[in-house]
Amino acid sequence: MRLRNVKNAKVIVSSHPLVIKNLNQNTFVNNNPIHLEIGTGKGDFLIGMASAFPNINFVGIEKYESVLVRALEKIDELPNNLRFMKIDAREIDKYIKVKIEALYLNFSDPWPKNRHEKRRLTSPNFLALYETIFAKHINIYQKTDNKSLFAYSLTSFSKCGYTLKRVSLDLHKEDLFNVLTEYENKFSEKGETINYLHANKKI
Ligand SMILES: C[S@@+](CC[C@H](N)C(=O)[O-])C[C@H]1O[C@@H](n2cnc3c(N)ncnc32)[C@H](O)[C@@H]1O
């Protein structure tokens, strides 16, 4: 998702008080657990989660300013427990200097062509990169409408030594607390079911 011609997006993003360059021990005023979302888009999920869970710190990573600016526009009061980073997920080990406790991958780009496998956010190379930002237990939560990406992810997590703690082919029928993302809203309005998994690994 890339929105074109968003006036001043670069300036707005780089000067916004919730946008950080590095995630380190001084980012938040407390030592609460940190949850990360990669591919935050226009922010609905993370803004909703930060409001629902004030004792968890949330950080959203988005690679396009033109998208991130839309998330920032939705924020009136600055929450203590919410930050954003304008970086590519491939660089997380350079910019994340603390350990996180959970990672959300919501409606990630599916990259259907085989030659683009390494760009999928659940490919083994990304799973190896995520190990650098977790301490002892990796917890990854994925939601997607895309059945091929979901099947690929299930295989990838299993191959890489993860336990699948929960798997659903129709998340909205489950008894689970769920904050909707922009894409989730759009797809479920069209009648699509949402695939969901929670993958866990001890390192
Ligand atoms: C399909 S959209 C989904 C947005 C949102 N998570 C949702 O569910 O509505 C995927 C988002 O991930 C971002 N993205 C894709 N690859 C990324 C990467 N390598 N690093 C950071 N953001 C990425 C895109 O720019 C886009 O905003």
What does this entry look like structurally?
The chain is α/β, with parallel strands linked by helices and 203 residues long. The chain has a single domain, classed as Vaccinia Virus protein VP39 (Rossmann fold, 3-Layer(aba) Sandwich), CATH 3.40.50.150. Helix content is 28%, strand content 20%. It has 7 helices and 7 strands; from the N terminus they run H-E-H-E-H-E-H-E-H-E-H-E-H-E. It has helices at 9-15, 44-52, 65-73, 92-95, 124-130, 147-159, 182-189, and strands at 34-38, 57-61, 82-85, 102-106, 137-144, 163-168, 195-202. Strands 3-2-1-4-5-7-6 form a 7-stranded mixed sheet, sandwiched between helices. Helix 2 links the parallel strand 1 (34-38) and strand 2 (57-61). Helix 1 packs across helix 3. The longest helix has 13 residues, at 147-159. The mean pLDDT is 96. The structure holds S-adenosylmethionine (SAM). S-adenosylmethionine (SAM) binds at residues 1, 38-41, 61-64, 67, 88-90, 106-109, 181-184.
